[in-house]
Amino acid sequence: MHVSVVLPCYNPQLGWEQVICKELGLFANKVAKPVELIVVLDGMTIAQLGMAHAVDTLQSTIPNVTILQYDDNKGKGYATRKGVQAAKGDIVIYTDVDFPYNTDSIYEIYHLLLADLCDVAAGVKDNDYYAHVPLVRRMISRILRFFIRMFLSMPVTDTQCGLKGMRRSAIGVFLSTSIDRYLFDLEFIYKCFKSGKLRVRAVPVRLREEIVFRKMDYRILLPEMANFIRLMLNKQ
Distance between CA 184 and CA 127 in Å, rounded? Predict the structure, then answer.
């Protein structure tokens, strides 16, 4: 298998399977090679209301699709690791289940990895992204980027963009991450830089025009702050 796309999935919006079929199809046409899709149902099962029909749609439309599921919600980081671990592609790309970034952005991630210009391609958000999100989320993002720059001394500070790709050489580092929720992206990029062996490249990406952001669950802030402190204390 040439390239795998991993999508962690938790309480997706109505019609999510149609979005996947459309956007993955656009990407596959641009790549012009087989694309493996892995959807990880994070605390959801196919038996849930409406889920069986959605899964049937994916399986009947996409030739190479794997559905992973488990009962308890364990977090985006946990789900993404499950998907990456199962991926067979030489290149593995992960993003959000609503495919928030446009086809050209996903293809650019793929192209840089295919050309062996980096081991990890990390999407970074442009100014247009921040124009679409609420003020509080913009402030949280800026504060996190400031903390990353000050305390972790990383050249890439926008680690939370939901689009990244890696070559096989980086999968071991990705699977060694332990944060189960949102800061798993930061942990991954930090470990890549810390290894001194993996080439990380920041890639500007653009949102799809029809993307609408959900409300943020601010209850995640305290545990994610604890995760950041743990990373900071273990940076040596």
Answer: 23
pLDDT, one tens digit per residue, over 96-142 is 999 999 999 999 999 999 999 999 999 998 777 766 667 777 788 88
Q: Taking the domains of the chain in order of start, what are their residue ranges?
A: 3-233
pLDDT for the residue numbered 1: 56
Structure tokens at 86: 């199962």
The burial class, CB within 10 Å (0-12 / 13-18 / 19+), for 13 is: exposed
Alpha helices by DSSP H, 41-183: 51-61, 76-86, 103-114, 127-132, 135-147, 168-175
CA max distance for the chain: 49
- Asked whether the beta carbons of 213 and 141 are under 8 A apart, the reply is no
The 10s digit of each residue's pLDDT in 169-202 is 999 999 999 999 999 999 999 999 999 999 999 9
Pick the CATH number of 3-233 from 3.40.50.280, 3.30.750.24, 3.90.550.10, 1.10.1040.10: 3.90.550.10
Predicted TM-score (pTM) of this structure: 0.91
Structure tokens at 142: 């800026």
3-state DSSP assignment of residue 223: helix
Sequence-distant (6+) residues with CB within 8 A of 151 are 232, 235
What average pLDDT does range 69-73 have in this prediction? 92
Task: Determine the 3-state secondary structure of 73 from DSSP.
Answer: coil
Identify the residue whose tokens are 């038996």. Answer: 47
